[in-house]
């Protein structure tokens, strides 16, 4: 169990982040700064060791504010663990022109975690620290209906690969690769209900494996054994991936047909 740590956990008010928070508060001596858009409302029932902070993590100003707040609440002591977990998806056919909509998902899912690395490395000044990312299995295999989400996570995947070659030895980087997780992720992705990708995993299982991975110093955490097996199968027999993609594309087609009916 992780204990006696100063922790920043973004996106802690819902989904995987909330489940991770529930585990971290059990550790004696942990103090957790929990920034999200609506943290002060959603996390008000947690004990005094959880400090909610309403902030937009998808902006330079927001990330800078998180580090300033951390310096305040941790009394100038270092951040032992910074878990950049905040992120969100769109589920849609990408068939429109909207710069701001595209920029928003990259600001939150890609640029913010990249900027966080730079700020955290500066903050540590050579001291030991742990940086954690929620990358997602979709950062390794794109999915129909998730073109922008896939691209944003592929960007983060590429960054973490490269930065490991540059980062100082004092910094542990642990990345999480969950498959579809049964959270409000899907409600955020589109207000119209759609079929979830296969398979779907429970968030408490994902959180438990991630916290365990951080504690044990793992570089990568893949909570789904089925995903690991499928990667091997698809590598040996690429048609397996083609069939899977076809099944998921069929779901998108049914969603598009549903939208068409609703818009009539």
What gyration radius follows from the Cα positions, in whole Å?
A: 19 Å
Number of helices: 9
Q: In this structure, how is the largest beta sheet organized?
A: 7 strands, parallel
Principal-axis shape equals: globular
Helix/strand order, N-terminal first: EHEHEHEHEHEEHEHEHH
Q: Which strand order do you get reading across the main beta sheet?
A: 3-2-1-4-5-6-9
Low-confidence stretches: none
User: What would the average pLDDT be, to the nearest integer?
Assistant: 93
Percent helix, as a range, is 40-55%
Give the N-to-C terminal Cα separation: 54 Å
Can you count the beta strands? 9
What class do helices, strands and sheet pairing give? alpha/beta
| Assembly type | single chain
Proportion of residues in β-strands: 5-15%
Q: What would a concise description of this structure say?
A:
The protein has helices at 15-24, 39-42, 60-73, 99-124, 147-166, 185-189, 203-216, 225-236, 239-262; strands at 6-9, 31-36, 50-54, 81-84, 129-134, 171-176, 180-181, 200-201, 220-221. By secondary structure, the chain is α/β, with parallel strands linked by helices.
How would you describe the overall organization of this protein?
This protein is of the alpha/beta class and 264 residues long. 49% of the residues lie in helices and 14% in strands. The protein has nine helices and nine strands. The chain has helices at 15-24, 39-42, 60-73, 99-124, 147-166, 185-189, 203-216, 225-236, 239-262, and strands at 6-9, 31-36, 50-54, 81-84, 129-134, 171-176, 180-181, 200-201, 220-221. The strands form two sheets. It has a seven-stranded parallel sheet with strand order 3-2-1-4-5-6-9, sandwiched between helices. Helix 4 (99-124) links the parallel strand 4 (81-84) and strand 5. The longest helix has 26 residues, at 99-124. It is globular and about 55 Å long.
């Amino acid at each position: 169990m992780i204990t006696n740590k100063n922790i920043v956990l973004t996106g802690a008010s819902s989904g995987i982040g909330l489940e991770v928070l529930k585990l971290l508060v059990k550790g004696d001596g942990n103090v957790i700064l929990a920034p999200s858009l609506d943290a002060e409302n959603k996390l008000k029932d947690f004990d005094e060791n959880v400090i909610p902070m309403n902030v937009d993590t998808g902006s330079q100003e927001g990330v800078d504010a998180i580090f300033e707040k951390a310096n305040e609440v941790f009394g100038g002591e270092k951040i032992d663990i910074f878990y950049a977990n905040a992120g969100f998806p769109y589920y849609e056919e990408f068939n429109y022109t909207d710069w701001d909509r595209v920029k928003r998902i990259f600001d939150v899912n890609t640029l913010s975690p990249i900027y966080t690395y730079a700020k955290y490395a500066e903050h540590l000044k050579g001291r030991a620290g742990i940086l954690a990312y929620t990358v997602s299995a979709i950062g390794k295999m794109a999915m129909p209906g998730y073109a922008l989400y896939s691209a944003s996570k592929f960007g983060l995947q590429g960054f973490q690969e490269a930065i490991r070659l540059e980062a100082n030895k004092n910094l542990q980087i642990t990345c999480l690769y969950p498959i579809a997780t049964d959270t409000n992720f899907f409600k955020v992705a589109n207000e119209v209900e759609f079929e979830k990708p296969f398979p779907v995993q429970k968030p408490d299982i994902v959180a438990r494996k991630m916290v365990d991975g951080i504690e044990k110093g793992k570089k990568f955490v893949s909570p789904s054994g089925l995903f690991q097996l499928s990667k091997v199968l698809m590598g040996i027999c690429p048609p397996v991936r083609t069939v899977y993609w076809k099944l998921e594309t069929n779901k998108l087609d049914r969603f598009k047909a549903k939208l068409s009916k609703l818009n009539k």
